Amino acid sequence: MTDFSSVAMMRQNTLRRVLREILLRGPISRAELARITGVSKPTMSEVFRELEEDGWVQVSGRRQGKVGRSAMVYSVAPQRALVFGADVGGTKIRAALVDMTGEIVAETVVATEPSGGDFVVAQIADLADDLAREADVGRSRILAGTIGLPGAFDAATGRLMMVPNIEGLEGSAIRDRLEARLGFSVSIGNDVNMAAKGEQWRGAGAGLSSFAFIALGTGIGMGVINENRILSGARGAAGEIATLPVGADPYDSRTFRSGALETAVGSAAIKDRYEALGGERDLDVRRIIDRLSEDDHRAARVLDEVARCVGAAILAVCAVVDPARVILGGSIGSRQEVLSRVRMAVAGCMPAPPSITISQLGSRAGLLGTLAEGSENLWNELFEADGDSGLVRQRAGGEAGEVA
Amino acid sequence: MTDFSSVAMMRQNTLRRVLREILLRGPISRAELARITGVSKPTMSEVFRELEEDGWVQVSGRRQGKVGRSAMVYSVAPQRALVFGADVGGTKIRAALVDMTGEIVAETVVATEPSGGDFVVAQIADLADDLAREADVGRSRILAGTIGLPGAFDAATGRLMMVPNIEGLEGSAIRDRLEARLGFSVSIGNDVNMAAKGEQWRGAGAGLSSFAFIALGTGIGMGVINENRILSGARGAAGEIATLPVGADPYDSRTFRSGALETAVGSAAIKDRYEALGGERDLDVRRIIDRLSEDDHRAARVLDEVARCVGAAILAVCAVVDPARVILGGSIGSRQEVLSRVRMAVAGCMPAPPSITISQLGSRAGLLGTLAEGSENLWNELFEADGDSGLVRQRAGGEAGEVA
Amino acid sequence: MTDFSSVAMMRQNTLRRVLREILLRGPISRAELARITGVSKPTMSEVFRELEEDGWVQVSGRRQGKVGRSAMVYSVAPQRALVFGADVGGTKIRAALVDMTGEIVAETVVATEPSGGDFVVAQIADLADDLAREADVGRSRILAGTIGLPGAFDAATGRLMMVPNIEGLEGSAIRDRLEARLGFSVSIGNDVNMAAKGEQWRGAGAGLSSFAFIALGTGIGMGVINENRILSGARGAAGEIATLPVGADPYDSRTFRSGALETAVGSAAIKDRYEALGGERDLDVRRIIDRLSEDDHRAARVLDEVARCVGAAILAVCAVVDPARVILGGSIGSRQEVLSRVRMAVAGCMPAPPSITISQLGSRAGLLGTLAEGSENLWNELFEADGDSGLVRQRAGGEAGEVA
Amino acid sequence: MTDFSSVAMMRQNTLRRVLREILLRGPISRAELARITGVSKPTMSEVFRELEEDGWVQVSGRRQGKVGRSAMVYSVAPQRALVFGADVGGTKIRAALVDMTGEIVAETVVATEPSGGDFVVAQIADLADDLAREADVGRSRILAGTIGLPGAFDAATGRLMMVPNIEGLEGSAIRDRLEARLGFSVSIGNDVNMAAKGEQWRGAGAGLSSFAFIALGTGIGMGVINENRILSGARGAAGEIATLPVGADPYDSRTFRSGALETAVGSAAIKDRYEALGGERDLDVRRIIDRLSEDDHRAARVLDEVARCVGAAILAVCAVVDPARVILGGSIGSRQEVLSRVRMAVAGCMPAPPSITISQLGSRAGLLGTLAEGSENLWNELFEADGDSGLVRQRAGGEAGEVA
Asked: Which of A282, C86, C382, D260 sits 20 to 30 Å CA-CA off A94?
């Protein structure tokens, strides 16, 4: 490392330290910043010049000091850096932009391109453009993004596996394709893991360092937050609980590929069960659950059965990862009628059951998780990484030198 | 923070940085150290004076330089800091001391004090003394220790729960009791988690960041290493897979407290099964497994059944945490006859099974895990923690100032 | 066959026909009998002489005829032929004598000889003597008997197999031993089959030609009446439903000999379940069931589980033998609390469940069955058999000639 | 009853007795018959005149007597009375005529009328006509018939219930409809019961009084012969083992109507299992079993699973009816590959398994059973019934008087 670059690095590090403190403590005066960071007055002036010039910092008011003088206080310009998040499902894509203070500045939901593959990749890129327009910010202000997708993203191979309901993504180097189109750094997350992350950020997992989020809808999946980190597993397949040995014999050939639990719960299973009892055919699952309020004994029985399967699955999850809480989500899991039954079932198989609640974010959980994840990634890029950061990468050529 | 302390802190930080580099790169010369750390020559002299005076560093030889001059090279004095580890089981305690280079300098195994509680605590303290004597090092050189215990250690409450086979430890603030007796900082780990840690350090988990260690003996338990960290769970009960819904209906009252899987596998279950088939009574489990080689069809059937239960348990574990490998340990799990059957069972319920192997460390796995864990703790205390470290705590009064 | 014996046979046959009609239609006059049987007046006189002389028939009154004359009417002397029945259980023996009109003339209950084997055989013989004394009839008037025993009586080999709770009877030629001691013809029946027979005779099976009686107490067993006959099976083991594949995996080694259903229900299972839930230890099963009225949720859960097992067993029984009704008996099966739960369970697994009721005879069902069975045997011996009958065998030497 | 009819009855009874003996003992001379029956010479002459005139008896040869004279010997004319049998399946009808000696004189197989109901009834009637023509006997010589049908024939209501695969027969008073079209007395039997009967008559059940025949093909069903009688149950549904609690939880809503065992075995289940393991799609079950010889591990696994279910079903059947043997039939059950696996499975769940063999009659078992059943019915009508018999009914007006 040359002396020159080492000086540049030092300046950049100082610049980061100051920016970090403004973000964490702002509005704040220069004097306070100097005291905290130990940065000398002249350097601080230089730093502020750069930060203001580059749009990171803005004056946010004036504060009366102790000795009668008032001081200007500064904040980070919230929209200087935006994070893009998208939760891509088989039928819908939810996408949003969040600013540096965590405020969502634009949000949308569209139908997923049925052609899958590159069409979906293109669709995601268009959404980023649309949202920037909607929020009235420059597209280049989007510095990072996270995309939630069904399936297991194997970080080692960079490939998405086990994608159940979007064509043309299985085995794909999806992250590279997305970064190429979006022009900012992208991370990929499993959709249910993202929902767990979302619940931790602003939902039923707030304040918890270890909990599980179980999504029960068309199928069943789980995201686990363990010591504040998403549990991914060796191949990104942690939480794929469709195969849990619950509800059927795991050695029965019929569940070998589909998964024992998956065949026992979820929309298709609920409809099958209801019809097998002689219930009305082709009824929507939502409607079957609604019938509980009409004292439909078939619906009650079906839900009891599903709840017992989910209860045993929760038992298995607790045996392996010991979460402080289990949050139920998904179109079926979010129903109060399901929650009460699952709680009863769990009480029947666990002497010391965990707290069980319903998702607070509903269908937006996954999206909020991508925003939280993307924001964390950006923070790490800006403030934790050594040396050359994404912040610098963003800015082309000579400019980078100025910032650093 | 006063200026004085801030200077002391800077000196201490410098001292740490130098020591860290000697440990990581030694034998190394002062010149090389200065180049790497950017520490000036006078400061380096001062640092070396302190490190040598305090016994951390020793001359380990002389190296021929490029320009004909030879330079002295330095290493860390391995036994300046020792770590104590003990794996406390219902019948035996294994204990050892490991030095800073990872070499075990003394090791022993004794019968567990049957009276339990304080007797076991005292026994552990005596073991530390004995080992120090045996290694011929000062007792005060033991700077940290880790104790592996059956049960779940809830870090939040500091209490040990669910202790199956040692009296007087359930609900105990065991860490405080041990630190009071041992005089150095102690961490507590679940015995099976420690075994997993041991396998990662020097066994079948070497090089793996995510894997599961399943101990099958009297009972069944699991330790998971996930992204290089022990998976503990919210209450320290992660991996308590005795309750997995496998081998019996989890809603059956008879498995409500004992756990479905626990009643289906383990020594008692194997004996029950063997006798229920009309096999010889009161036969030791080891002997029952031995009989496989005598074409005992009852033994074969019993082992097949147990393997199917273990196989379904592995399926459940993979569904939740997706390990890259499953290592079988414990008196039963370590048997080749069991491994081959479990592999066959897993192939029958998982289309893409994980690698499954046997523990390489056998009954020493847990002990080695405590040594690894203790060494990591010490490293963190010495080199990662901010400000006042255990290293400093170790040294009383004015001495601390000298080191820092 | 000589002419002489053929005439004797004809006379005996005539005698039987007349006796049969008196038994079925009495009180009845000689004239009516002559009209019905076509027996000539002189032969009828001869027949009556013999029947009266031998004590079979007695004048029971006088009836006003159509044309003013009154006629004597005759009935069978009820106590001319008695039938002995005994229901032999592990702890108690119930025994009784029944006369030709079906009236029980003496009945007793004693503790089973704990020494088993010949001691029990002798005890049964003593009971026959005691009952005859109590009823004040000649011991020789007991012409037949039926003994109900636990286990399967294999008529082909004449041996009693699978005797769970009386020593010294397994594999025994029990019928020969009993006939040798009792001095009259004896038939052996399974105790639960006898209870089914008793319920058909005078209990909840009255008027039904096909039903099942399930005894649930210490263990579980079943007697089936099919087209008015006891279903025995090829080796007398029909109804041994302890082995039904219900409540546990029938391929699990632990149920290989004991039977899956047997391990899931019955007194021991109920106690195990109750205690496994944390219920009071060493509580009598009767008391556990009583606790339902005290809102003991553990007792409720245990009974629900047992009822589900019994319900699935009833499903299996219906699939195989299609009974019109299932009668629950035994100390546990007779409880109203169990009945209501079993009905609910059955409704959950059978779209068209059979009628399910409780035994009307309680602990006397088996005894009454032996009396019914013995009476039928005697009837067949007297009136259905060709040639030399037990009736004739009873009467020694020359007398036989007289009767015939 | 008038004197006249009573004389007629006596003559008819005599005629029957003689005919019975000729049938049982023929060829036989008049003198021998007289000796056996005690019928006087003149009466015997009269009886022979009538029997010959009516075609029942024919001279079958001449036998050398003891004292030099030869005597004519008589036999029953085999085709004087024929019995019609038909085994009606969802796709095929097998039908045949059997004569009085048990010889099948005509047999055919046709596709079942797909329109069902009355079309099938008409088709059966046509088959009787066709077979009579083929055998070259008068249609009026068919005196009785038995029709085997899928479903449960409730003798009490005269209705056929639970007919799985022929339209328009459910709930039908099928016997009345058939008798109206066929013009002779008809009995209805369940097709699998008939197969059991057939196996007892001329197959793997010959000589056994108690055994079970399990048909495993599209679905699963059972016929039990108990003490030489078909076990029918209260509503004709005995042996409907599709609902046995084997292979799935009987309380699972999905098996509530279809039956747990039915969903686990049979053609559809085998195909499902094979495909779920990744096997070739839309393969015929016969072909899947064939693949065992090509070491197809998927086929082997599927068959093992099916065999375990069948094995547990056999366990249940033995627990309830204790058969001496279990005969496997049906397109799947008749396969040697299935037999060997079922035997192995049964050895794994029963310490004392029954003998298990394969059907000897294959797809003709049911037909042969109807012929045996019809022949028995005819025998009873001719020789066991009191008073007015079908034999008499057959012969119109004055003729009847002459015979009687």
From this structure: A282
